[in-house]
Amino acid sequence: MTFSYCQHRHSKPDLRSPALEIKGLDVAYANDEKIALAAINLNIPAGTSIALVGPNGAGKSTLFKAISGLLPIRSGSIKVFGHSLGACHQRVVYLPQRSEIDWQFPMSVLELVTTGRYVYLGWFARPSQKDIQTARHSLNEMGVLDLANRQISKLSGGQQQRVLIARALTQNADLLLLDEPLNAVDAATRQTVADVLGKIKAQGKTVIVATHYYDQEEGRYDGAIFLKDGHQVK
């Protein structure tokens, strides 16, 4: 699995600050001199829904991974609710693309979704009944509670996406980074995802969605960030 976890340096979010503030961000992958992201500057208010738009290879996933602390920063700064990445806390969740998940890993749907609670636990603590109930509630929100005991290797593409979003909901974060959650899913799943994202925004949470479908969904977002070849496009 490719999910990241914070290491008990949890800080309460400063909700008076932007949900995300990025200044002069440059990012490069290890052992690669080529800059993957260059001179990125963002200021995203809390409680907004933002589309991150660009073709494959534009840098959308790279930006999400940098915000999540999965990639080192070459230069610049990232602050989340007023805190630097060094003060990682449980209020940020990154949902990777389905292709980055090992769907052959031997675990059930409920076990996968419950890992969304691990950020609140010690390294050796087991999920409580409350954690498990939170995971079950998230599965119900996504309309897949009936799949709780199914092995993740037995899921269809649309079911995989619903389960991953259920996992993100289980963490109960204030900033959600969703990497192409509507890519290659059926119409019913697209509608379910859209409905749930609307509920998340109504709760005052901040959502950034990497998408190829901005022309079809523009009315769902408060704004958009456009990337091309690792640069912002006006």
Class by alpha and beta content: alpha/beta
**Cα distance spanning the termini:** 35 Å
Main β sheet profile: 6 strands, mixed
- What coarse outline follows from CA principal-axis ratios? globular
Arrangement of strands in the largest sheet: 6-7-8-3-9-10
Chain oligomer state: single chain
Helix content estimate = 25-40%
Number of helices: 6
Unreliable stretches covering 5 or more consecutive residues: 4-8
Radius of gyration: 17 Å
Q: What is the residue-mean pLDDT, rounded to a whole number?
A: 87
Strand content: 15-25%
Q: What are the secondary-structure elements, in order, as H or E?
A: EEEHEEEHHHEHEHEE
Using DSSP, what is the number of strands? 10
Task: Give an overview of the whole structure.
Helix content is 26%, strand content 24%. The chain is built from 6 helices and 10 strands. The radius of gyration is 17 Å and the shape is globular. The protein is an alpha/beta fold and 234 residues long. Residues 4-8 have low confidence and may be disordered. It has helices at residues 60-67, 109-114, 129-141, 157-171, 187-202, 214-217, and strands at residues 20-27, 37-44, 49-53, 73-80, 83-84, 92-95, 175-179, 206-211, 223-228, 231-233.
